[in-house]
Amino acid sequence: MNFGPLIFLGVFFTMACSWFGMIVVPQLQIGGQQPVKLEATGQMYPLPRAGLAQQGAAVYRANGCAACHSQQVRQGPPVFDVKLNDLGTNAAQVADIARKINHAAGAPLPGKNIWRTPVKKDADAAAKRLTDAGAKAAVVIVPTGADIERGWGARVSVAQDYLYDQPLMLGSRRIGPDLANIGARKPGADWQLWHLYNPRLITDGSFMPAYRFLFNEVPRRKDAPPALGALDKTLVAKTFPEPAGETVTDIVPTAEAVALVAYLASLNPDAPLFEAPAPVPPPPAAPATNTPAAVKP
Amino acid sequence: MSASPTSPQNSPAEAEASCRLPLLVFFGGAAFWLVAASLLGHLASIKLHSPSFLSHCEHLTYGRLYPAAMNALLYGFASSAAFGVALWLVARLGRVAVPQPWLVAFAGKLWNLGVLAGVAGIIAGDSTGFEWLEMPRYAAVPLFFSSLFIALWTLLAFHRRAERGLAVSQWYLVAALLWFPWIYSTATMLLVCHPVRGVMQAIVGWWFTNNLQTLWLTPMALAAIFHFLPTLAERPLHSRYLALFGFWMLALFGGWAGIPASAPVPAWIVSVSNAAAVMLFIPALAVGLNIVNTLRGGPKIVGCAGGPFCFLRFAVMSYVVAAVAGAVVAASAPGAVAQFTWLKTALTHLNLYGFVAMALFGAIYEILPRVTGADFCRKFMRAHFWLAIIGTVIHVGALAIGGLKQGALLGDAAVPFHNVIKTSLHFFRVATIGELLILVGNLLFALNVVGLFVKCARKCCGAQMSCCAAEPATTGGAK
After folding, report:
1. Contact at 8 Å (CB) between B322 and B355?
2. A61/A138 same-domain check
């Protein structure tokens, strides 16, 4: 039995199929994706990263932060809120209808959510009934899911968000929290720098490695002025007390650390997109649900 | 290449002896990188347990050690060993002497140097940032060319084989030798040399990591299994048709799996990929059934005493378990739960340590004595076997349970993240114990290979230049 040529052809053909289907076709479909204009603000989305943040991405890559951190928000099926924007002239009737839609709704006030339902059709019908009675009502799509409830993002991550990521570091494991929107969640540069210097100064019992090599430790006499660019120690006063002796150590971030923090600050994909609607405006930075943090940003 | 199919018949011994030099390079390199990968990986695990340890040293930070360990394992050990096994199988089954073996040995050296440059590059901070493709361009280019040369040269030898009939092993290895340069060059081109944009990078990356396992290491391990298990058991293969079926199922579905359930890519890609991942249990079951039926019955039931046979048999079990578990995860809700957890790591490690590495160990333990005429230390081999299987079971089991737990807790926003990670780290501690056992086993393996090289060198001096006498050692002694 000599299947040589047959095997060769078959092997070639199966790989060609996979290559075509998983590389060529997706490239044709999304390889040419362009920034889009946002309806709300008229800005293009996404915008390329600023130079410093781009340098920070290289630090993130070199030190393999993606080995522990993902950058992708997942979401469950969305739910729909029927929101009352304005009662209009016939408030009594609107209140009546609102109660019919949802007994638990309470007194209808402008800006209030009347009803939440997983079915878009029902939400639209309810909004229509309110509108017919003279009120102004709208249906708001609310993303759900554990990632979103944890405050890791306002909405699901979509292809558009990553247009300028080079290299793209989605990560495959969550040993640490997702960082997709860390720029919105922990905006303080000082917080980020101290956390990188030693995560355990900020978060009790953190398992994140310390990145002391991204900082210079500069000793000085206690009465001398602090080194240029030294980190402010008030944030970690409890966990990093000044030694009693004559000299203290200033922690001065290197250019790499500063760039890395600029990159982290740039991570904030919150623009509402057609394929990924988000409640407008995006909710404020969520409470620090990740840890019983010793220090809040 | 005007290779004539009627090239002079080589005696099996001559054919096997022709690949001695390349095999010393491939298997020696594999043993070295296996130990390096285990040490780097274990250091990474220690750093996860005590995160302030060595925190002033940028080269030893977790995010560099872990990828360095994976790359050393995948390219330094598994791929290098796979090249060697393929070369030997081609020579042995085709009764053909490898032409100019020193050229292949040279390419093997280049491959090893490429891995060295790549691992050093990752540790120095030059990682590309793409999983399993972290090696920087200056390492990827020599790796590509040496692998291309090795693959083509092995296929050339295959083309000149004297024995024209094809064994099942040969289908797998010919396929894998064609697939590897293809997937490696595509991924390197599209990610490292001329990068595509946005999530296309992730798609190419997933395609590559999946194919590296399913269409390169898996068929190579299966080639070893389909040759050695029936040979060692002295039984004919149960069914060639079943094997053919399994082979084509793997070829058909293997290249499509690998995209995670909630990837931010067009939905059809995820659906197609998930369906393929489910279908991959078919080739695994076909292999499993075939091997079980081959070994069952017959004049004697083959027992297991920690020899090559046991390694290969354990590899088959791991393959079936990993494929079925992978299909279950892809087919059901756990797919989304498992994403970003240790469960995925567990399945990958089961595939790499339990299946691929075990099959390669078995093959190397069988091949090296035949081509060098020197013997392995049986005690070490047996110890290696038990350490490897116990270690793999503990390691993979703990990671899998921990991963399921982690996924469930991650899905419940009421549980603070700190508690999620704390819970899963308990399991990770247990997994590290398993990893330690694997590490000790790997050390024994490397010592054994070195010992064999020394014996062979001694013999060589004694016998005045007829290095490592060409007579193949009789096999079949210990199973």
Report:
1. yes
2. no
Predicted pLDDT at B369 = 93
Q: By CA distance, what is A8's nearest residue in B?
A: B175
Kindly state whether residues A180 and A212 are assigned to the same domain. Answer: yes
Asked if B172 contacts B220 with a C-beta cutoff of 8 angstroms, the reply is yes
Q: Which residues of chain A from 204 to 233 reach within 8 Å of chain B, CB to CB?
A: 205-214
Q: How many domains does chain A have?
A: 2
Interface size, chain A vs chain B, as Cβ–Cβ contacts under 8 Å: 218
Nearest to B187 by CA among B245, B122, B143, B232: B143
Contact between chains at A22 and B255 (C-beta distance less than 8 A):
yes
Residue range of the domain that includes B151: 9-165
Q: State the Cα–Cα distance between residues B305 and B296, nearest whole angstrom.
A: 17
d(CA B370, CA A115): 77
Give the mean pLDDT of B159-184: 94
* Percent of chain B's residues with pLDDT above 90: 77
Q: Are residues A67 and A84 in the same domain?
A: no
Asked if the Cβ–Cβ distance from B199 to A30 is below 8 Å, we say: yes
- Answer yes or no: do A217 and A112 share one domain: no
Cβ contact B63–A65 (<8 Å)? yes
If chain A, 297 residues long, is cut into consecutive pieces of 10 residues, what is the mean pLDDT of each piece? 79 96 96 89 90 96 96 88 83 83 75 84 88 85 88 91 93 94 90 94 90 92 88 85 83 96 92 77 45 42
The residue type found at B211 is: N
**In Å, what is the CA distance from A279 to each residue of A25, A139, A148, A179, A274?**
33, 10, 12, 20, 12
Q: Measuring CA to CA, which residue among A102, A125, A122 is closest to residue A114?
A: A102
Which residues on chain B are in Cβ contact (under 8 Å) with A175? 48, 421
State how far the Cα of A177 lies from the Cα of A153, in Å rounded to an integer.
12
Q: Residues of B with CB below 8 A from A240's CB? A: none
Q: Which residues on chain A are in Cβ contact (under 8 Å) with B208? A: none
Q: Tell me which residue of B284, B292, B288 sits closest to B233, measured CA to CA.
A: B292
Number of domains chain B contains? 1
Between CA A222 and CA B115 the distance in angstroms is 50
Distance CA B209, CA B190 (A): 14
Parallel, antiparallel, or unpaired for β A36-37 and A44-45?
Answer: antiparallel
> Do B394 and B437 contact (CB within 8 A), yes or no?
yes
From chain A residues 150-169, the ones with a CB under 8 A of any chain B CB are: 150, 156-169
Could you tell me the CATH number of the domain that includes residue A196? 1.10.760.10
A152 shares a domain with A90: no
Helix, strand or coil, per DSSP, at residue A162: helix
Q: Please list every residue in chain A whose beta carbon sits closer than 8 Å to the beta carbon of residue B57.
A: 213
Is the domain of A213 the same as that of A103?
A: no
Q: How far apart (Å, rounded) are the C-alpha atoms in residues B126 and B120?
A: 9
Angle between the B267-279 and B281-295 helix axes, to the nearest 10 degrees? 10
**CA A202 to CA A295: how far, in whole Å?**
6
Give the C-alpha separation, A170 to A88, whole Å. 47
